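hey m, so remember when u said the tokens were messed up on ur end? i reran from scratch. heres the input so u can diff it against urs
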Amino acid sequence: MRRMLTLLSLSAILAAAEAGLMASPAGANTTVHSVIDVNYSDTITDLCSFPIEEHVQGSFKRVAYFDNNGDLIMVKFTPTGGPVTITWTANGVTATTVAQANSTTFYPNGPVLTGNGIQANFIVPGVGTVYQVVGRFILDSEDNLIFTAGPQGDVDTLCQALSG
């Protein structure tokens, strides 16, 4: 099965944003609020038969929840202060989506990333929507899809649109 789009791109960013949260704050049942600015570029080589240049830019609000023992139990991310925009460019064609809310929930065996609603709606100017992920999904700590509900886009259609 092909990887879920956007969610996996964001999962790497969000996981990196978890650095430093493992130390427990003083107090019981604590929440810690912060804003994370993202300006991230990468090359995706395992989706289409050609490389895709990815760029993610915007900011997330991060709320970390700790239990009575000071252990991190959940972190929620929501776009804040403007959109979080993801662009994928290949062969002179750019597809763009605006990231929706995501949350990362931590369990004893590692993080689980969940998403609800419109997770991705990649649009190519003059063409329209070329890939959309809508509904609910859950990934395990190794980015394996363990649950999905709702329509998922066709990766072949996205690749065809980006092929130029």
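this time it looks ok to me. The chain has two helices and nine strands. if urs says something different then somethings off w ur setup not the seq
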